[in-house]
Amino acid sequence: MAENVLHVENMTMQFGGVVAVNNLSLDVNEGEIVALIGPNGAGKTTAFNMITGVYAPTNGKISFKGEVMLENHPQGKMVKNYLGENDGMYDKTIVKTPDQITKLGIARTFQNIRLFKSLTVFDNVLIARHMCSKANVFSATFRLNKREEQANREKTLELLRMVGLEKEKDEIASSLPYGKQRRLEIARALATEPELLLLDEPAAGMNPQETDELSEFILKIKKDFHLTVLVIEHHMELVMSISDRIYVLDFGKLIAQGTPEVIQNDSKVISAYLGVQEDE
Amino acid sequence: MSATTFAQHLLTGISLGGAYALIAIGYTMVYGILRLINFAHGDIFMISGYFMIFAMASFPWFIAIPVALIGTVILGVVIEKAAYKPLRSAPRMSIMISAIGVSYLLENLATYLFTAIPKAYPEIPFLKKILTFGGITTSLVTLLTPVLTVVLVVLLMQLINHTKIGMAMRAVSKDTEASRLMGIKVDNTISMTFIIGCLLAGIGAILYFTDRMTVYPYSGSLPGLKCFVAAVLGGIGSIPGAVIGGFIIGICETFLVAFGYSTFSDAFTFLLLIIILLVRPTGLFGEAATDKV
Amino acid sequence: MNKKTRNTILNILLVALVVGLLCFFQSDTSSHSYAISIIERSVIYAVVAVAMNLLNGFTGLFSLGQAGFMAIGAYVTAILTIPVEMRDSVYYMNGIAGWLHDLHAPMVVALLIGGLFAAAAAALIGIPILRLKSDYLAIATLGFAEIIRALLAAPMMDQITNGSYGLNNIPGFKNIFQPVALAVICIGIMVLLINSSFGRAFKAIREDDIAAEAMGINLFHHKELSFVISSFFTGIAGGMLAIYMRSIDTKTFQVMLTYNILLIVVLGGIGSVTGSVIGSFLINGGQEWLRFLDDDTFKIMGVHIPLFRPGFRMVVYSVLLMVVVLFWRRGIMGNNEFSWDGLFGLFKRKKKKVSAGGES
After folding, report:
1. Do A117 and C197 touch (CB under 8 A)?
2. Do C215 and A102 touch (CB under 8 A)?
3. Is ipTM beyond 0.90?
4. What is the extent of the structural domain holding A16?
5. Segment A33-66, tens digit of pLDDT
């Protein structure tokens, strides 16, 4: 049995009266590609935002390789309209900020690409290396960290080569075509040397050929960088071809989980996607 | 401090607060609709003071007041069309710099046209009438200011909540693009916001300067900033909030001066601002907005 | 001759030209006092403008507290450099605090201490206010500058800041090289910072703070760093301004001062260091060259211009700012830096245009 990388327990997120994610528990093990799917508004991206620390969950616990990153319990007003059918209530409040979580080894991409738009492709990736550098502001300003800086530049170049953006390295990020921007975002995430990579709809807006290339690309980087991948995607062909296991969310709740074959034949999943037939 | 002096200061504070409230409404409405701190609003208020001086030089007060108010409104609309409209789609920093630029221009223009020497503000005879009751002496304007403020705010709330243009304003401040798609004339609505804001600033100017008696090119900048603080205190975008914020700041300032801390009265306002932003960034009545990731 | 050697030669020529020019002015200070004064003020403003740009242009934090931090630097520098024997006459109204009376430091040390005080104030105020969004941050820093001014003028501080009387008898610069060298060092350090990995992190925050955070950049830590460093250099520039002006009071550091620096930054181009420096020379130089606008006796070819009278210059300035903001948002340099290649590229493009125009 492979080692557990990400463990999510009873994660719940409530915005006022809306429960975006309700009591979600999931596990991702080392070396797996796990997909999180569900219709629009099912709470997938909210789940991602909680795992990466952008939102603090209303209730639940998230741990990475056994270390608790986030733990929270409903507070104040939230207690009153807390609707979660929780298996466990948590008494501690542990909130790590997104940068701390990235430092632990989780990197992500965004649904609506968030590149450093007016900077070059090269700088976009190089910035992600800043986290790994040990220089303080004094030594960095007075160039006392030449060797480290050089190493970071070489690493950046290597990453760009691996994702096939070497030629575009001096171009401004926003001038790249859409597919390449997606790749650049992945390259930037890889530059933080993650163990777990979260991809938020990497195939959105891509044509079938680009999608095929993307699934090969994901498999390739998974192998080359020894990654574990959690991916949100609508594109079923991609999901079924690359993932080891699938979790299905609907209205914030987990409705099914299992291997692609199991999911494909699950009646609840089919009805969530196609709608339930009313018996009259 | 005896009860009479206390009452006297309280009355002065409420009156000053009323004038602040009228200016603060302009800030809060413009911020609500354009997400812009209209740095020039305080200077529009100052120029309105000059308009009144010139209007009073040639007309009796009942004609001079409308003339000055119309002048202020036209100035406000011209500023919006010339300096803010071209930057609708620009980054927020550009439009803020533009607002600072307008403020800088109005102050320098006033210095150039009217010199930096304070000009005497004309007396409007009936406003200066002295009233005495129970040991408190006050002029009519001091009493009139808070009353007028409350009346105007009630009218404004009616306008915003129960008329078509009010509905358009609320829609644009929630979502400009969606309002445009719904057929609301966004530019007209924004102009209307400036008209109301400047009209209230013009009325505020009459009340404020009648009490202060002089106008000079920088007499709008500090009150302007204080009124912005009042708007933030009340919760930016909320009109009743701005009014209450205005009264709170006016009263606090008056008492600080009364206790002999006049050097700190301006600093206090900003300290208050920083404290609110830390403790309750949405102000007393504001609503929180969340960013979508 | 390849580009690199050409650029090196041009750089050496430029430095030589500047040094030569400075030597020329220094050789006869009395007849060039006018030019010296413009240059000194320009370099001081250039330091503040670059520091402001570090925050506004590179980190994306819109701060309007420059006047406050300059005031801190200026007062600390002034108090430390006024000759001990002059102090009783400077503080003749209120007297000077006993512990302060014999505290004296040489110019550079005083400037550094002034910068450190400004940086410390920034560190303290930064903790609460750097969490604020763009325009709230602007108004909070503006308010903070006003608080500093009120504190400096407060009656309780009379024995330290001399209250409303201000401070005078501050020893001036010994020669023109002092301020220029100080400014070059300050700006040089900021340029090095901007091009370091921290500078890139600052730019990342400006571009997209959520993505920056997801890349492991601690937002608060980096914003605070940028704010403190910018304020440090702003404080030093404030101290230099005190030395340049020889006498200061709290009125020197009103909001208008911040707006003037903002004008320089916007004119030069937000996000361009060389732009800020060029902007500073243009604005400060322009202030002198355009003095005729304030002169109501000035005539062009014998014709008296009715518009020219005191205050007109500032109107022209503010119109200029509006024109830049509305029609020329990138300023002189946009967010590019000056380079010889860029300059020659510009000429070539012009030439091409001309020749293309001729052929058609």
Report:
1. no
2. yes
3. no
4. 4-105+194-274
5. 999 998 888 889 999 999 999 888 888 889 999 8
